[in-house]
Amino acid sequence: MTAEANHTLNKKSSKKDNYEHPDFYAIDDLLTEEHKLVRSAARDFVKREISPYIEDWAQRAYFPYEIVKKFGDIGAFGPTLPQKYGCGGLDYISYGILMQEIERGDSGMRSTASVQGSLVMYPIYKFGSEEQRLKYLPKLASGEWLGCFGLTEPDHGSNPSGMVTNFKDMGDHYLLNGAKMWISNSPKADVAVVWAKNEAGRIHGLIVERGMEGFTTPETHGKWSLRASTTGELVFQDVKVPKENLLPGKSGLGAPMMCLDSARYGIAWGAIGAAMDCYDSARRYAAERIQFGKPIAAFQLQQKKLAEMLTEITKAQLLNWRLGMLMNEGRATTPQISMAKRNSVHTALEIAREARQIHGGMGITGEYPIMRHMMNLESVVTYEGTHDIHLLILGNQITGIPAFS
Ligand code: TGC
Ligand code: FAD
Prior knowledge:
Layout lengths: L2 H7 L23 H18 L3 H7 L6 H7 L18 H14 L1 H21 L2 H13 L4 E4 L15 E4 L3 E12 L6 E7 L5 E7 L5 E2 L14 E12 L11 H35 L1 E2 L2 E2 L4 H29 L5 H25 L11 H11 L6 H13 L6
Bound molecules: 3-thiaglutaryl-CoA and flavin-adenine dinucleotide.
The site of 3-thiaglutaryl-CoA has 25 residues, from α6, α8 and α12.
């Protein structure tokens, strides 16, 4: 690549990232010194490594692969897993804070981190053998390797139990066939945790490595959302998977669903990071933009928007913090996680839309982060269980009547 092309791909914005996070209910008082240190390190990282470049990356649909190693260096991958495997050994509040800060920078960047931590490293740690943990976790934690998680298929999104990807026992190896779609990180991933049915129709997790014959990862082009994150397919045509690559610890749909619990929790915090960025930008813009001889912040209609944004952010911050404490105690339930994921993403989308209006025409440009956040959140509201699926999970919890089918 020429020096000029390289410069263009990584064009640095001259705009300074002056982000200040809203903390209307002194929620900082609930955080430990360790939580604050994690936040400060992650915020500095985002200001230094993401904010100056992200608009350019997103406009060009460029995935900055070099960020993977940098995330590893700050401990963004699998932060709650044990230090023995090169991970952070932190609690779930710290994990939430990391996701919040990274998604404040960009949802696509948070996707890269949360897929690696919650959807690749977590199942290897939770359901893997000790040999598998030692082989994969340190390389994934450091960012030497990138991973992806294959559950969704072209014909099975909200209903993953209908999956058709399958493997046969061939004696000394498994033979894997099928296809996964909409897979974050897939085009660049070194390893994939893939969910497939055995001959008895039981779902198992398999670790598939790049380079295995018959395994390809075509990239999905033309996304208007998560443009700085790379998304693709996983295609398996008679892939010989060594027997030692099966995750032995758990089978059935419950195994990938447990991974989703962890990732959805991270999204609950992450989406509010995006919302806080939109609010912060809108608050500053309203104070600076003069119309009819006054800052637009002086008009009641704009104040209403800002007051409602701050109210919703504060409610979500409290919900997330409490959920984090339940996660730390091992008491958080899937419906509680659904409530937080659904609430945070909905709140963030509404705030992004209101913030876009406060910025007027400028709100549609890359001068401000608003439109990028809004477009990103259109994916976040769909992946890891759609807005409606999380409502049905809550409905099931409340009534005891599943309404999925
Ligand atoms: P259902 O009958 O409810 O359950 C089937 C079996 O699974 C068990 N189970 C769980 N176990 C542990 N933890 C959980 N959270 C569990 N949820 C379910 C359940 O107990 C049962 O076990 P058993 O032993 O009785 O068989 O399943 P269902 O087929 O009716 O489906 C329920 C439904 C719709 C809620 C679920 O399938 C669902 O959540 N669908 C949404 C799919 C989804 O979220 N896909 C995400 C793909 S990954 C992704 O999007 C990554 S994006 C990442 C990024 O870029 O950041
Ligand atoms: P569908 O399931 O077809 O749903 C379409 C609509 O129907 C939705 O509004 C849905 O709420 C509604 N609907 C479906 N069933 C019901 C019902 N029972 N009752 C009421 N309404 C219903 N998957 C992975 O496995 N790994 C990844 O890394 C990954 N990354 C992704 C990255 C991006 C950018 C995107 C967009 C998706 C990603 N996904 C990933 C897939 C994601 O999880 C699915 O898109 C999601 O689960 C929804 O599936 P679907 O798109 O097939 O929609």
